Amino acid sequence: MTIREIQDEIVDEFSMFDDWMQRYEYIIELGKSLPLIDEHYKTEDNIIKGCQSKVWVHAEQQGDKVVFTADSDAILTKGIIAILIRVFSNQKASDILDANTDFIDEIGLKEHLSPTRANGLVSMIKKLKMYALAFKAKSE
Amino acid sequence: MLDIQKIRADFPILSQKVNGKPLVYFDNGATSQKPQVVIDAIARYYQEINANIHRGVHTLSQLATDAYEASRHTIQHHINAKNAYEVIFTSGTTHGINAVANGFAALLKAGDEVLVSALEHHSNIVPWQMLCERTGAVLKVIPMNDKGELIQAEYDKLLSPKTKIVTVNHISNALGTINPVKEMIAKAHQVGAAVLIDGAQATPHLKPDVQDLDCDFYVFSGHKICGPTGIGILYGKETWLRKLPPYQGGGEMIATVTFEKTTYADLPHKFEAGTPNIAGGIVLGTAVDYLNEVGFDNIAKYEHELLEYATQKLLEIEGLQIFGTAEAKTSVISFNINGIHPYDIGTIIDKLGIAVRTGHHCAQPIMDYFNIPGTIRASFAFYNTKEEIDVMVEAIKKAKMMLS
């Protein structure tokens, strides 16, 4: 699936919920499905700054795709990062870089999360794109 | 007895809804809400007497100056300072601490010691670290026990003729511990050290008597005591304020200026460079008057009731642990629930209209001591109610169910 197709799918899933509680419960569920980062990649370098909770992300190249794994010590944050990884993992670096992230507004995440966490979300996307940029530069 | 419903009616923000739920504001440790008299006083200043102070001969300037200086007197009486010129307007607690720490750079030499406590806010750590870097003085830390109380026996051992200044908070922002500052000040004076008391968390709950405490400096913020942001107080004993060099240069703090030599203005203006926060200064007096009308004895008694009620109710939640269990404690409860990140709880109960603080509360060394990433902190003010505590407890139970 393309990034856009996955995003549409997520928007679709979230449109089924009537209230914030159902959204949050779903985010918590998603957190449990997060492809977990290998313990030895939980280094200072892999921590995302700007989150109140700790988030680690690791990226590696598999063929022409970038694959992400991650973890967080907070379950809601884990859910958010799981959504981002579902969108961006297993995609080409150039597609990751080109992707827009409007779907976050569409699923009501940005407005429904507290401002500091919203900043964390921005930092997370930035970090994922930074990895993609690094891999793209390497392959050119 | 406080008429809480009447008091709540003084605070327009409290009747607001947040996320569709009635606001339960338990983040008073971060900043207090403002009563209508304070909000009105800000508007009245700009509507009626706005002018620069201490320099114009015109009527408005005189009115603004009078109001500003009247507020200085209000605060002088509130904290029982000997002289009004010992009361310096600052932008807040952080500014006050930096002004003193900066002044001490001229007085310290390599090998001198600065004592801070393990309970301090970053604002009462970093300026002293910077001072030590500049002067070669050594920063020493008064340790705390598992209850979050400073260990007095260790403090005694740390004090020596090398100690030049001791800086400690009156009440801990992260844990609510009330420190025995009067005794600590007396001990410091025995070795000839000066003492700064960070009163940012104490002044919302009690009326400090700086002469009785015998502290050399006492600093606090306006916004935590129902006043506006960007205004605070540095109290200093006259002898110390004369000894310390000014913190900032500029207008207002000078007597004469030539390119060869500038002489400084007398106290308090020596420490008040530039056009100050005039509205803030004036309205801080209004806020202090308001609090005194409510009465600090009433506030202390009622807040203690809230603390006891909330402590008991929270401890009924399985797996909930309170950090900071000092014998002497103000209405602050820092807690976690086993296996759940404080941030997750904070985010979910926010959706239920409850404002608490989560994180390290600008006191990372305390979190390191307990080996936790942070806590959830509920801090109560005299306008909060037991019913609100019930709402919070139910919200936490709901969050806990969602998260575990």
UniProtKB/TrEMBL annotation, chain A:
Gene3D superfamilies given in the database record: 3.90.1010.10
Domain (Fe-S metabolism associated) ranges: 11-130
Signal peptide: none
InterPro entries, alphabetized: Fe-S_metab-assoc_dom
Family indicated by similarity: Belongs to the SufE family.
Name this polypeptide is given: SufE family protein
Automatic annotation (TrEMBL), chain B:
GO molecular function: cysteine desulfurase activity
Catalytic activities: (sulfur carrier)-H + L-cysteine = (sulfur carrier)-SH + L-alanine
Gene3D superfamilies, per database record: Aspartate Aminotransferase, domain 1, Type I PLP-dependent aspartate aminotransferase-like (Major domain)
Pfam families in the record: Aminotran_5 (PF00266)
EC number(s) given by UniProt: 2.8.1.7
Entry-linked PROSITE patterns: AA_TRANSFER_CLASS_5 (PS00595)
InterPro entries reported in the protein's UniProt record: Aminotrans_V_dom, Aminotrans_V_PyrdxlP_BS, Cys_dSase_SufS, PyrdxlP-dep_Trfase, PyrdxlP-dep_Trfase_major, PyrdxlP-dep_Trfase_small
Cofactor names: pyridoxal 5'-phosphate
Residues in Aminotransferase class V domain copies: 24-391
Keywords: Pyridoxal phosphate, Transferase
Broadest EC class assigned to this enzyme: transferase
Family, as annotated: Belongs to the class-V pyridoxal-phosphate-dependent aminotransferase family. Csd subfamily.
NCBIfam families: sufS (TIGR01979)
PANTHER family membership: CYSTEINE DESULFURASE, CYSTEINE DESULFURASE 1, CHLOROPLASTIC
Reported function: Catalyzes the removal of elemental sulfur and selenium atoms from L-cysteine, L-cystine, L-selenocysteine, and L-selenocystine to produce L-alanine.
Name of the protein: Cysteine desulfurase
UniProt organism field: Flavobacterium sedimenticola
